[in-house]
Amino acid sequence: MAEAKTILVRIKRQAGPRETPRWEEFSVRWRPNMNVIACLIDIAENPVTSDGQKTTPVSYEANCLEEVCGACAMVINGRSRQACSALVDHLEQPIRLEPMTKFPLVRDLVVDRSRMFNDAKRMRCWVPIDGTYAIGPGPRIAPERQEVAYALSRCIFCGNCLEVCPKVNEHSDFVGAAIVNQVRLFNMHPTGAMHAHERLRAVRGPGGIQECDNAQNCVKACPKGIPLTESNNDVNRQALLDSIFGWIFH
Amino acid sequence: MSSTRVILIGGGLAGLMAAIRVAELGHSVDLFSVVPVRRSHSVCAQGGINAAKNLKGEGDSTWQHFDDTVYGGDFLQNQPLVKGMCEAAPGIIDLLDRMGVTFNRTPEGLLDFRRFGGTLYHRTAFAGATTGQQLLYALDEQVRRFEAEGKVRKLEGWMFLSAVLDDGGVCRGACAVSLRSGEVRTFPADALIVATGGIGSIFRQSTNSVACTGSAQSELFQQGVHYANPEMIQVHPTAIPGEDKCRLISESVRGEGGRVWVPKTPGDNRDPRTIPDAERFYFLEEWYPKYGNLVPRDVATRAIHKVVYEMGLGIDGKSMVYLDVTHLPREMLTRKLGGVLEIYEKFVGLDPRDHPMKVFPAQHYTMGGIWIDNENQATNVPGIFAAGECDYQYHGANRLGANSLLSCLYGGILAGPAAVKHAQNIAKSAESAPSTVFEREQKRQEQIYERLRAQQGDENPISLWKEMGETMTQHATVIRYNKDLREADAKLAELQERYNRINLADTGRWGNQSLHFTRELGNMLVLARLIVQAAVLRDESRGAHYKPDFPDRDDEHWLRTTRAEYNNGSFKFQFDPVDTSLIPPRKRSYTNS
């Protein structure tokens, strides 16, 4: 007689930013191809801990569930990653789920990553167009160049690269590799390049590229395989050149 | 020119496009989204966006695009609007290109185009296999620029609850709840644009994102906004079946040469790579020689159903078929389809470059939606506009692949200025709405939440949601029988009744996700009933709506838009004529030429 296989999930709970964290353990019925999100849905359906205590459903962020929206980042068995692509069969048990630590905690596994979007705004990460009117096609771009840009533009703002970065901490306001990579992306674009100086000035400012000490954790944590260290080095070089020669052009 | 304020609900492609247009005209935008807008479901669109640029010397034209779209939709569209969209498409691609979308390029540095379903032309511009992501990002960045200029205010993490309507039935703003703090608040505005996308959550295991619940559409419907063609639900032929969701494998995989097949012998459980070509059944190519694997989605989905359920040829006797790209050059696969193949690799654990993928149809898109007029995305309620998947125009009874990103953008382009025009009129003609209108709506919404918190019983929202999803997927997707649909409606009525006995394990305010989900669930149930009731009424087969008991299209009776009005818990249906003034309806068949 086959016994139903179960999975143990330990979750670090915290009811709010000022509450005390606690751990709760849940036992979830195993099914093939399960991911961490499926476990969390099960827990929401039956919010009872493995020792029979009634509790509240666990708060977490998730949206696309195919690792392209960036929402469900959390620390799983000590590693910062997306929960949707964390398949249960590949994880050691009990599975430990914790919120990311480099962002303000909201509740349970939910953190506030809005600083990333604010930093993107500060670094002027966009192509400034004249308007949405019909003013003809965009610039021609060589396929090789498109391929480099495409790889950079797949960043999902998950924040895993910030979570693992030693320079993102209480004592430094480093924007992190994701944002530096955006600066590189927009400086590459023919129209974006016309405004590279603005971005480079911003990325030399507070929390800028000078904070990066090349630990290279970011590139290993990136779920999209973005060459982040390459981007850091490239933007560092651009920023240096801009600081030396920028005044000639501006 | 007086500056007005427009509220936008939803920050996917349609919402962002509308926001850009409103801000560009010098007006203020309050942009509400349940998720940070960059995480909206548009991010999941993979294959591309259609525009008849005719850069491949094929003689493609915007008229041909228009004809393919109307034919693909089985003639249920109001044609002038579709024609406008197809004519605008090449310019929209130029705009996206200028915004910096990393579209794939030809050796000459021009935009590359691929083939997609329901057409014989290379008409689909693409950025790898994550086109929606790239488009969404480009628009997100433009909106961020307006945000930096103070023209757009983002309210991310706020969920739309209802429109604020004055005593004359005119929209004066919106009521929303903070998903973080639980605070319910009203926001005044001179116009409201809804761009809240799909409703996949109603089917539970769909290709949609978690946020695609249709709750906003349902809420507006219950407030008097009409809803059209709810029965038109698209089931995509190729997705990876999954428990938390079905992950889409883009049509572009077939556009680039992917082939769908099953072993000819039932139960043949050999490693697919060892099954010789002669023992494989490439059923789409055999049944539809001209379009082959690129027949429209409704046709491909029904073919897969037939092969699996009628002929018993599913892989290992299960509900799955092969989608095979192992014969294609690896370098090309990585360059053009990397993003989607990666999904298969990560979630199934096998590299599709070496192993044929196992796929099955899954709910994907809703052609129907909020009723809007034939000109400028206006609903029947003054001051409320809709754009994107949540509106009902453009796709008729079946959407062609790579037309959705286009209709989102086109709808947003129209809705923005239309909302501004309305807003300027109202700002001029009427004094500001009395504060009692806002207080009344806020109170009503707070009471709904209080009731949910106080409810006693033994029901759980997730369990009810699962039951709803099973019912809908089973009876209201690919094959429909009136008897089953009626049973489904009875089941949904039972779920509505049990809904009142939901006992929330968490009754707090802060970050209480199950509370807000339960709120949405109530709205989902209303929309689910609307879908099945409308499906019962349409006794014909057209596009995605297929009834074996009524296997043919019946233009005489059913070349009509289903239009529903909410009436105290029940629905009132009317059937409007469809504007087919440009292309006379003709028989739709992809079997021969």
Question: Could you write a compact summary of the structure shown?
Answer:
The complex is a heterodimer of chains A (about 250) and B (about 600). Chain A is an alpha+beta fold and about 250 residues long. Chain A is about 30% helix and about 15% strand.
Would you give an account of this structure?
Chain A is of the alpha+beta class. Chain A is built from 8 helices and 9 strands. In chain A, the strands form 3 sheets. In chain A, strands 2-1-5-3-4 form a 5-stranded mixed beta sheet, covered by helices on one side. Chain A has a two-stranded antiparallel sheet with strand order 6-7. The longest helix of chain A is centred in the C-terminal third of the chain and has 22 residues. Chain A is elongated and about 70 Å long. The mean pLDDT of chain A is 95. Chain B has a domain of 129 residues: Succinate dehydrogenase/fumarate reductase flavoprotein, catalytic domain (Flavocytochrome C3, Chain A, domain 1), CATH 3.90.700.10. Helix content of chain B is 37%, strand content 18%. Chain B is built from 15 helices and 21 strands. The longest helix of chain B is centred in the last third of the chain and has 26 residues. The chains are: A alpha+beta (250), B alpha+beta (593). At the A-B interface, helix 1, helix 2 and helix 3 of A face helix 1, helix 3, helix 4, strand 13 and helix 9 of B.
